[in-house]
Amino acid sequence: MPVLVTPTHEGTAVEVVRGRLTRADAADPRARPLRFPIPIVAKESGVGVVRATVTTFECVGDDCQPRERDVRLTLRIERD
Fold it and tell me: Measured between alpha carbons, how far is 27 from 60 in angstroms, rounded to an integer?
């Protein structure tokens, strides 16, 4: 099934380096479950949020319905 991962960031502490990932970008495109490394860069001290929307399809026979899920991770960036 096609899979699209769309990561975004909130705040200025972190930045998402790449905005769209497909099945081919997974660590192992044949694995179940798929794992996607989301490239981010720490920009400054503070709190940042990384969100990802995962879009795919669920099929029963020839009837396919789009499915979407949002996840969120809060990161605290600190300097030594």
Answer: 27
* Cβ–Cβ < 8 Å for 9, 38: no
Backbone angles phi, psi at 24, to 5 degrees: -65, -20
Contact 64, 24 (CB under 8 A): no
pLDDT in tens, 47-60: 999 999 999 999 99
Q: Long-range contacts of range 26-33, CB-CB < 8 Å, 24 or more positions apart? A: none
Contact 2, 54 (CB under 8 A): no
Residue found under tokens 């972190």: 14
